[in-house]
């Protein structure tokens, strides 16, 4: 009987194939296991050395890149005119020189990996820091632990020290820092140093580590830089490792009696040596385990093969035959069934289904959010919108919808208080809290709107309508309590269908803009508001802006502040449209930025990194206070500037050009008028006004030509002569280049739009006319 069974089994083609594969695979696995173990010890050094050296090189590149960026900043600072002026100047001028240099330090210290930047002066032991400003003595600075070793910079071009923050700021107590110092050289002698304090945790958090190895970073003096906690070995043992390695790329060492392979590499930027230790005992143990497992696997494969033969012949044929009939419509091709043919087909069908289901489940929230974002920004067509709606919003009805905009109050001020990573986490938390808050009663989708806000699309799950403004008010309170964030919410009118969602979103943003008058933390419902029609900036607004700028130029800070208060009071009284008010404020600040850039004045802190978005999330009272804080120091700087010799000379040049506008004058004539050389006049005029003498004279002539074209009936040839052009064609070419229109077209358009067109903005110039 047994003989007959064996004959039957061996007679089956599939059974013979399985048996042959079983014997071949088991033999192959056995040979590989024995051969691998025999060759492992010979190739261990090479095989282990390469990945560890590559990992060390990767970490070396990470640290080098971070330090190179900071070192470039330190080198730039050591040659910056403002820094040199502070370091090389006498002690009596320290405070004045420090004021100019500190703004530059603050600008560079905004990177997330930089705690602070300091400039150390050796002459009188004073120091200037980006965070605390000027200190007359090192010991008076908020943190001066570096004073013990900063003197070493006189003998070294670069110092990098690991240290602990020992200053007066309680938030930074115990913080680990990496201090990078570069010398400031004066007449061949080191007069000071630039010191950049880097965040220790931020730098080394980017290092790649491997669970089976240990990594250490030492400086050239043999001091441990990394890690700072949970050292796996005593420092005395590690000193022996350093002595054994010396400058070799790798070596076999023993620590506490256990064998390790040590690899190292050196940094040409920081001078550090990076060391990795791999336990050899564990590696040998693993390879022995692998050998035994492969032998065991060989035996298991034999058992599996025999089991497969049994299962194939006695258990698998009947279900396989049924499956084969389902997949093969031709009954003649069905036969007994073939596992080799069926497995790929079934596996592919099941695998594809699982993958698609998983991807769809993971991607649905992001797809819905992107759909809402495209819908509110009107960047999606109707057909595409409906197609995606049917795919992404199963279970939703086509209306009605509610649209909310949740905006962070004082967003620019809020953003300055947190690092970028923390801002992203808080915005993520806001998004989750909004979704969780509305989830019980509403179908909810959130999407990013602008950088200060998130748009929320809601559809009620219940038949009765909920009190949405009341619910939104509770949400504002909860966000303030949990996240300590003040937000305002704008609510648009109910959208009857998805086609009306964009309109509802625009209404929500418009309602939200009335935060300008109503303050922070409020609910602004468009349906309950009387929103006036949007007004354009008119002559009265330009008059107010001109008065503020004129008061700055005189300078008269009291008049400028008074005009700001009068404008704010008028805006409140008239309840002017918020977008109009914000546009006016932005125009004024852009003008002030232009004045500061042209005259190289120090910007107030409020304008150090100004964008229009800075004022869109503020209320009017704070905008009013901010404008006052800006015009006061700017007025003082302009007043000082008007007393300089260069200012008076440039004013004389401008007056000369205005008085001789119709003559064929040039740079040489202007220089002769003030008894100076052409090069000196050109440089002085460019520095004071931000433009060249030729360009300024051309603008004067074109402006005068515009007035004559609008207010006189003179011919174009006559106007050309009156503004200094002897050739009419040359005048027309210059006019078209500056105004993008010919003089004739300009005169024609002025007849019809003179009452309504906004007057052209004044030229941005660092020199201002007297008001007398």
TrEMBL record:
<dbReference type="Pfam" id="PF17853">
    <property type="entry name" value="GGDEF_2"/>
</dbReference>
<keyword id="KW-0805">Transcription regulation</keyword>
<feature type="domain" description="HTH araC/xylS-type">
    <location>
        <begin position="651"/>
        <end position="749"/>
    </location>
</feature>
<dbReference type="GO" id="GO:0043565">
    <property type="term" value="F:sequence-specific DNA binding"/>
</dbReference>
<dbReference type="InterPro" id="IPR020449">
    <property type="entry name" value="Tscrpt_reg_AraC-type_HTH"/>
</dbReference>
<dbReference type="Pfam" id="PF12833">
    <property type="entry name" value="HTH_18"/>
</dbReference>
<protein>
    <recommendedName>
        <fullName>HTH araC/xylS-type domain-containing protein</fullName>
    </recommendedName>
</protein>
<dbReference type="InterPro" id="IPR009057">
    <property type="entry name" value="Homeodomain-like_sf"/>
</dbReference>
<keyword id="KW-0812">Transmembrane</keyword>
<dbReference type="InterPro" id="IPR041522">
    <property type="entry name" value="CdaR_GGDEF"/>
</dbReference>
<keyword id="KW-0804">Transcription</keyword>
<feature type="transmembrane region" description="Helical">
    <location>
        <begin position="17"/>
        <end position="37"/>
    </location>
</feature>
<feature type="region of interest" description="Disordered">
    <location>
        <begin position="741"/>
        <end position="772"/>
    </location>
</feature>
<dbReference type="InterPro" id="IPR018062">
    <property type="entry name" value="HTH_AraC-typ_CS"/>
</dbReference>
<feature type="transmembrane region" description="Helical">
    <location>
        <begin position="293"/>
        <end position="312"/>
    </location>
</feature>
<dbReference type="GO" id="GO:0003700">
    <property type="term" value="F:DNA-binding transcription factor activity"/>
</dbReference>
<keyword id="KW-1133">Transmembrane helix</keyword>
<keyword id="KW-0472">Membrane</keyword>
<keyword id="KW-0238">DNA-binding</keyword>
<dbReference type="InterPro" id="IPR018060">
    <property type="entry name" value="HTH_AraC"/>
</dbReference>
């Amino acid at each position: 009987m047994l003989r007959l069974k064996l004959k039957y089994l061996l007679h089956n083609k599939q059974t013979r194939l399985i048996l042959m594969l079983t014997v071949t695979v088991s033999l192959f696995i056995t040979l590989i296991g024995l051969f691998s173990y025999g060759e492992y010890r010979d190739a261990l050094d090479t095989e282990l050395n390469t990945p560890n050296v590559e990992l060390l090189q990767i970490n070396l590149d990470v640290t080098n890149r971070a330090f190179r960026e900071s070192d470039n900043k330190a080198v730039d600072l050591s040659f910056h005119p403002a820094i040199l002026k502070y370091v090389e100047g006498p002690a009596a001028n320290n405070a004045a020189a420090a004021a100019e240099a500190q703004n530059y330090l603050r600008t560079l210290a905004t990177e997330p990996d930089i705690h602070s930047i300091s400039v150390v002066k050796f002459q009188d032991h004073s120091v200037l820091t980006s965070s605390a400003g000027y200190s007359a003595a090192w010991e008076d600075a908020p943190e001066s632990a570096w004073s013990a070793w900063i003197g070493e910079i006189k003998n070294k071009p670069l110092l990098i020290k690991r240290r602990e923050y020992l200053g007066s700021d309680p938030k930074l107590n115990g913080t680990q820092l990496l201090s990078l110092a570069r010398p400031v050289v004066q007449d061949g002698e080191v007069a000071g140093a630039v010191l950049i304090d880097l965040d220790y945790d931020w730098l080394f958090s980017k290092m790649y580590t491997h669970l089976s190895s240990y990594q250490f970073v030492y400086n050239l003096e043999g001091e441990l830089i990394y890690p700072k906690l949970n050292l796996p070995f005593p420092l005395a043992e590690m000193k022996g490792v350093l002595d054994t390695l010396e400058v070799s790329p790798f070596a076999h060492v023993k620590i506490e009696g256990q064998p390790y392979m040590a690899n190292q590499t050196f940094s040409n930027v920081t001078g550090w040596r990076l060391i990795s230790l791999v336990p050899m005992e564990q590696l040998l143990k693993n390879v022995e385990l692998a050998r035994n497992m492969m032998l065991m696997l060989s035996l298991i494969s034999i058992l599996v093969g025999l089991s497969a033969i049994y299962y194939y012949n006695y258990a698998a044929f009947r279900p396989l035959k049924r499956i084969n009939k389902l997949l093969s419509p031709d009954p003649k091709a069905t036969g007994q069934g073939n596992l080799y043919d069926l497995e790929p087909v079934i596996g592919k069908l099941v695998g594809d289904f699982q993958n698609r289901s998983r991807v769809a489940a993971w991607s649905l929230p992001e797809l819905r959010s992107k759909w809402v974002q495209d819908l509110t920004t009107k960047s999606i067509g109707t057909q595409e919108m409906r197609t995606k709606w049917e795919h992404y919003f199963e279970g939703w009805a086509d209306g009605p919808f509610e649209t909310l905009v949740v905006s962070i109050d004082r967003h620019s001020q809020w953003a300055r208080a947190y690092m970028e990573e923390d801002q992203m986490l808080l915005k993520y938390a806001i998004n989750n809290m909004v979704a969780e808050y509305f989830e019980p009663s509403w179908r909810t989708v959130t999407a990013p709107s602008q950088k200060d806000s998130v748009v929320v699309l809601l559809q009620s799950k219940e038949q009765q309508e909920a009190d949405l403004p009341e619910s939104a008010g509770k949400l504002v309170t909860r966000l303030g309590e949990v996240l300590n964030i003040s937000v305002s919410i704008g609510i648009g009118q109910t959208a009857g269908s998805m086609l009306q969602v964009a309109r509802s979103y625009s209404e929500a943003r418009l309602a939200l803009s009335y935060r300008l008058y109503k303050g922070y933390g409020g609910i602004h419902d468009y349906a309950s508001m009387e929103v006036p029609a949007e007004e354009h900036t008119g002559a009265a607004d330009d008059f107010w802006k001109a008065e503020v700028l004129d008061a700055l130029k005189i300078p008269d800070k009291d008049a400028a502040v008074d005009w700001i208060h009068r404008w704010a009071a008028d805006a409140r009284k008239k309840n002017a449209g918020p977008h109009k008010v914000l546009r006016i404020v932005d125009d004024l600040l852009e003008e002030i930025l232009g004045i500061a850039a042209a005259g190289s004045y120090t910007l107030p802190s409020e304008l150090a990194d100004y964008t229009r978005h800075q004022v869109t999330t503020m209320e009017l009272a704070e905008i009013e206070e901010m404008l006052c804080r800006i015009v006061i120091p700017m007025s003082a700087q302009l007043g000082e500037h008007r007393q300089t010799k260069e200012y008076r000379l440039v004013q004389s040049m401008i007056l000369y050009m205005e008085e001789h506008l119709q003559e064929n004058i040039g740079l040489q004539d202007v220089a002769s008028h003030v008894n100076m050389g052409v090069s000196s006049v050109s440089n002085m005029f460019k520095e004071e006004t931000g433009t060249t003498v030729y360009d300024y004279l051309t603008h004067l002539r074109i402006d005068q030509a515009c007035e004559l074209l609008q207010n006189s009936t003179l011919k174009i040839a006559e106007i050309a002569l009156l503004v200094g052009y002897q050739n009419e064609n040359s005048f027309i070419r210059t006019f078209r280049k500056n105004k993008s229109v010919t003089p004739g077209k300009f005169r024609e358009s002025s007849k019809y739009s003179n009452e309504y067109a906004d007057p052209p903005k004044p030229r941005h110039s660092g020199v201002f006319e007297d008001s007398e």
